[in-house]
Amino acid sequence: MNELRQYEIPVFGLENKRYEYDFESGDAFFAALEQDLIEKGNIQTHLILDKSETMIRLDFQISGTVEQTCDRSLDLYDEPIQIERLMLLKFSDHNEELTDEIELIERNTHSVNVARYIFEFLATSLPMKKLHPRFREEDEQDEDTESEGKLIYRSDSDEEPTDEPPVDPRWAALRKLNDN
Q: For 145-179, how does the pLDDT look when each residue is reduced to its tens digit (9 = 90+)?
């Protein structure tokens, strides 16, 4: 857990102005988070913290690579990462997560650990389908041909389709009476 201490930002004594922080995250960062999604990587994070009377605005600019396993070949490859995200921490009398981008924090909070935010942004930016770069062009070509469409069924009937169902002869007789 000591690895994550460098991501602690003391916010209690900060003046209301803009601050900038830089973080280097490596394999020890991912191991300290005790998760299985990302085990290795090299990430650089530039954080702009803008503190005001009512909130703290965190602008994250994250770049680097994380090691992933290809779903098709099980080969390891480096997935490039380029993320720009915003997080708002609004001062309140209790802690609560309102949305993915807005959290309430207590006014007397001494520090904020941004390691969790960095990891969440990384995890949500990874593609669902993990493909080694050598398979990506092939996969994109397959998607293009699939978008053209395939004919599954064709009726050889000469009748033209009608939107109206056939009318019951009893109702047809009643309509004749109504028209008179």
A: 555 566 666 666 555 656 677 778 888 777 877 77
Q: Are strands 76-92 and 102-106 parallel, antiparallel or unpaired?
A: parallel
Domain boundaries, the chain: 2-131
How confident is the model over 37-78, as pLDDT tens digits? 888 999 999 999 999 999 999 999 999 999 999 888 888 999
CA dist., res. 27 & res. 47, Å (int): 20
Residue with tokens 């009748």: 159
Q: Kindly state the tokens that stand for 152.
A: 């599954």
pTM of the full predicted structure?
0.72
Residue 60 β-bridge partners: 47, 85
Task: Tell me the torsion sign for CA atoms 24, 27, 30, 31.
Answer: negative
